[in-house]
Amino acid sequence: MLFESISQITDLIKSALDDKRHSFRYGNLATVGSDLAPRVRTVMVRSIDPKATLSFYGDGRALKMQHISQNPKVSLSLYDPAEMIQFRFDGTAKICTDPKRTQETWAHVPPILQRDYTTHKAPGAILDSDGLDYLVNENFFTIVDIIPHQIECMVLGKNGHQKTLFVTDGFEWSKKALVP
Ligand SMILES: Cc1cc2nc3c(=O)[nH]c(=O)nc-3n(C[C@H](O)[C@H](O)[C@H](O)COP(=O)(O)O)c2cc1C
């Protein structure tokens, strides 16, 4: 597959997000905090808009949120093994500070999944033998948007590989073919 436009990419990812088994739902997000040590982890991509801004949810106490506050430059890769397509989004992560959007989105999170954002201890803390406690009237649900400044598409093919780089100045996207 040859990628010609940003809308082709956003349409492809958007339709993949509607398919519960599609691997594009799971991105590998890399952050680098003030200790300059990179850290990668899986996040579930929740949405993509026509500007290719991706969103995911997390617990506001997680280390990734500290990293993003210290250094908002992130990289997120998506890979579809069926089609051997990889996208790498390089951009800026923004932690949503709009309470209305956060509350409206939270209201659509199923109650069983809401629990993930209400643990008494922060994610990554040592779990003691008493198990997990949940807060009742408090949550750390946080939406993060990733605003890409470039997207690299790599497609492996039997008859040759293709790599295309899309770069934006915030208004327009330009496209270059790269050596794969
Ligand atoms: C399949 C899968 C999906 C995940 N989705 C998310 C997610 O959407 N958001 C999130 O914060 N963590 C998610 N996690 C957990 C992260 O990979 C990570 O372990 C956790 O967020 C703590 O990362 P941090 O300490 O670097 O912040 C997911 C893990 C797996 C295995």
Q: Can you tell me the CATH class?
A: Mainly Beta
What's the story with the biggest beta sheet? 6 strands, antiparallel, barrel
Supply the number of helical segments.
Answer: 4
Give me the strand/helix succession: HEEEHEEHHEEE
What is the rounded distance between the termini? 14 Å
How confident overall, as mean pLDDT?
96
CATH architecture: Roll
Radius of gyration: 18 Å
CATH superfamily: Electron Transport, Fmn-binding Protein, Chain A
Shape: elongated
How many distinct folded domains?
1
**Given the helix and strand composition, which structural class is it?**
alpha+beta
Low-confidence stretches: none
In this entry the ligands are: flavin mononucleotide
Write up what this structure looks like.
The protein is of the alpha+beta class and 180 residues long. The protein has one domain: Roll (Pnp Oxidase, Chain A). It is built from 4 helices and 8 strands, in the order αβββαββααβββ. The protein has a 6-stranded antiparallel β-barrel with strand order 1-2-3-6-5-4. The model has no long low-confidence stretch (mean pLDDT 96).
Please sum up the structure shown:
Pfam families: Pyridox_oxase_2. The chain is α+β, with helices and mostly antiparallel strands and 180 residues long.
List the helices and strands and how they pair.
Layout: H1 6-17, E1 26-32, E2 38-48, E3 54-59, H2 63-70, E4 73-80, E5 85-95, H3 99-107, H4 111-114, E6 141-155, E7 162-168, E8 173-178
Antiparallel strand pairs: 1-2, 1-4, 2-3, 3-6, 4-5, 5-6, 6-7, 7-8
The structure holds flavin mononucleotide.
